[in-house]
Amino acid sequence: MKQIAIFNHKGGVAKTTMTFHLGWMLATMGKRVMVVDCDPQCNLTGVYLGDVDAEDYPFESENPQKPKNIRDAVRPAFESRPYIIEPTELFPSAEQDGLYLLPGHVGLSEYESQLAVSHELSNTLSALQNIPGALHHAIRLAGTANNIDYALIDMSPSLGAINQNLFMTSDAFIIPMAPDLFSSMALRSLARTLPKWAEWGKKAASNSLLKSADYPFPNAQPKYLGSTVQNFRKRARGDEEAKPTQAFQKWFDRLAETRETDLLQSLKDADMLLPESVYLDATAPTDKFLMEIGSLDGLIATAQDLSKPVFAIDLESDTNFRGTVAGTYRGKIADVDYQFRQGAEKIVALTDGF
Questions:
Q1: C-alpha radius of gyration, the chain, whole number
Q2: Is the pTM of this model over 0.85?
């Protein structure tokens, strides 16, 4: 199983949308995919459920040894329970074969401070040695039990211990962004933060106490697969392909500059890049975005109500859109389908050697 972190500590860059759409597209290509909701806000779980009317959370675990969400999966390690981590029950999509959800839980955030302490002190306190590897072990166990090919990890917009742990125990990562000032600032911040995480990850993987833990910390070195950009306006000029409007193109150029001068150099120094030939062979050069997803307008709300990605919407049977509006949306749906299909194919090629 290949574990891919979908991460940016800036909010509003469509991390959850990216995770759900990419997971669905990989499943249409015959892959068995597990989307893992590790954001305590549980937006991915909400998207998966759609417009559910329930008084109680449907993924609460009645039996602590049969977990139904990510928080309950790791309780044995964080709460020193007298039983081991067991595979979490996954929930198959009702609409797409091969797609599964490992649900989130608001209570996962309660473990943040405990995980932070264990990151700092587990090398000296054996009582904490099972905590740093617990999240990875729970995700890996669920994936193995269900023959999963790809685990896509949806993460919260923060630089906290949970995200640090999930990121550094993944095989690869994708950075979603938006064409705006704050995404450019976030890239510079990531350029400073990710090398520090990489250094911590190397120390944790080589720590003798963590190696001998019930849930060993893995020797992982996540690799950059690329970045994506979403939520911008396109305009076609004459017979040319539609491109970002001038206002958005300015931020595309700014993001590209920041990516080249700050992010990629820091990732190279931290050994978080694949060989250049791998990117070129996958037609995913690092100076280009893996995917460019324009504004989805009203389609995203419709997709969420249907628990489907935008590219799976059938305008005739799923909506009341007709006439000119339907024609406009039909073009958007086709573009989103193309972008995610191309992106998924690039990701499969980039991770082929993992």
A1: 20
A2: yes
